[in-house]
Amino acid sequence: MLFISASLALSSVAAPPVTRPDGVIEQRFDGPALVCGVAFAIEIGTGEHAIKRDSRIDFLTYYVEGRYGSFVLYEGNAPQAHDDEVRTRLGWPQLVAIHDNRGAAARREGRIRDRLLVGDAFPAACPAPAAR
Fold it and tell me: Taking residues 68-91, what's their average pLDDT?
């Protein structure tokens, strides 16, 4: 399991947000880093990167790529079919849906759910709410 100290993670510098021609706002994070969402955080390791996409509708998506392959995290209230989810106990976003099409070995090695910080662990890792 990957653990990153809060001081290292919060000092990691993300690329500045970029607005695409279609209005979607993207921000790239290179690991090691702690990527904070609105109601969760995920630890990404060395060689991994995450791209946060804000379509300015009612959800956020996070595309994570690394040595175990890629997966998508959805943060909102109405996800498409997904492989796993974590409930946030909030009105919005109600859940973090995990879209993971990787093979069984990559799922075991990558352990997405083990890397998500939600509930009481989230505000300790990301004390300020993430900007939307």
Answer: 93
Would you state the structure tokens that stand for residue 15, as one six-digit string? 């690329």
The distance from CA 126 to its chain's CA centroid, rounded to whole angstroms, is 12
pLDDT tens digits for range 11-51: 356 889 999 999 999 999 999 999 999 999 999 999 999 99
pLDDT cut 70: percent of the chain above it: 86
Other beta carbons within 10 angstroms of residue 90's beta carbon come to: 12
Helix/strand/coil (H, E, C) string of the chain? CCCCCHHHHHHCCCCCCEECCCCCEEEEEECCEEEECCCCEEEECCCCEEEEEECCCCCEEEEEEECCEEEEEEEECCCCCCCEEEECCCCCCCEEEEECCCCHHHHHHHCHHHHEECCCHHHHHCCCCCCC
The encoded tokens of residue 61 equal 């998506």
Give the global pTM: 0.84
- Strand duo 95-99 + 84-87: pairing: antiparallel
